[in-house]
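Why should sequence recovery work at all? Because a backbone constrains its sequence more than one might expect. Tight turns favour small or flexible residues, buried strands favour hydrophobic ones, and helices have their own preferences. The token representation captures these environments compactly. In the example below, the structure is given first.
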């Protein structure tokens, strides 16, 4: 699913994720976690890669045991882990902490010609 370089991208992603997960009959608890993670990954892509030229895209994959989200963006810079606790007074910087807490695993890899993919995986009960 291509997404705009705009704040509305996260909401678009959440709605799309919910529609797909409903079709796949994923339980509500897991669906809520996947929606939040999709929102965080897309928000990071818009915020940090929004000035780069290219497409932000959301891909969802499912096997019998796993569900995987991938957010592709045109910026080759890897995501930055906060490196420690994020102060409560700080408005930003918790996205990857949330992703790590809600997913079974997450990571990133560079695309051969441009950009990167940040992904998160979830166990399917």
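From this structural description, the recovered sequence reads:
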């Amino acid at each position: 699913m291509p997404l705009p370089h705009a704040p509305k991208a996260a909401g678009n992603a959440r709605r799309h994720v919910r529609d797909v997960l409903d079709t796949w009959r994923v339980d509500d608890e897991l669906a809520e976690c996947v929606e939040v993670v999709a929102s965080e990954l897309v928000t990071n892509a818009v915020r940090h890669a929004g000035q780069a030229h290219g497409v932000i895209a959301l891909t969802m994959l499912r096997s019998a045991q796993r569900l995987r989200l991938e957010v592709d963006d045109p910026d080759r810079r890897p995501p930055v882990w906060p490196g420690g606790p994020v102060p409560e007074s700080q408005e930003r910087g918790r996205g990857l902490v949330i992703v790590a807490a809600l997913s079974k695993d997450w990571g990133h890899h560079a695309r051969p010609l441009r950009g990167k993919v940040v992904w998160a995986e979830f166990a399917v009960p």
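A few observations help interpret the result. The radius of gyration is 14 Å.
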